[in-house]
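Hi everyone, sorry if this is the wrong subforum. Our group has a chain we'd like a structural model of before ordering constructs, and none of us has done structure prediction before. Sequence below.
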Amino acid sequence: MDKLSAPQTLQKNFKHISHCLKMAHIGAWQFTLIKEPFSLHDLKWDGMVHSMHGAPLDESIDPLKWLQQIILPDDLLFICKSAMSSFKKKDYAEIVPHSYRINWPNGEIHHIEIYASFEDPGPNENKVSVYGIAKDITQDILKQKLIEEQQNHLLSVSRLAVLDEAFSGIAHEINNPLTVIQARSFQLIQMAEQGGLDALKIKAVAESINKAGDKIVKIVKSMDAFTQEDPTQNQT
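Answer:
Right subforum, don't worry. Here is the predicted structure as tokens:
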């Protein structure tokens, strides 16, 4: 078997890597970063990145202009600041991860995750090539959001079950002092109707009613504290 030349081997490896990236729905991109004044130029991306940014199949589309139109302004500002910060560090071997949101023409919000690397600019430190890969992680974000919503729903259902059981016990606890209050109130009514308003007896009945009322207040306060407790505070 004939041995491949170095360029042929490189081309073969490049095609293999490109195929693997495509299978994983990952695309490649690159652009030029100017330090003074800070600006981005010559953004280029492959078909996969073109597709994940919702760009029409038109070769005349300028990727940088298209990106500036659809990326959320806050995310664009964050990426620019991060790029400048990384550039100033001069750690050109560093792989920098970022994510940003884009608004597709149909109104869908997509989340793009990128990994960037800086090419050593050499003596020209005002200009550097930045290159990397990109992946649409929208479905991953939506799945995570769905999982969190399901977890919150399960917490709510579990909490409601606990509350239902607790309130049943609380109702029983409240019924006892309420029975005392009703009985003592009826006793006062009987005393008034019979004209037997003895001061000491009235005082004793009032104290009994007051004591029962205090017990109800304590029960209500404990119930209020329980309902306001955040079940997530105890999670680690």
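For your construct planning: The longest strand covers residues 109-118. DSSP finds six helices and five strands in the chain.
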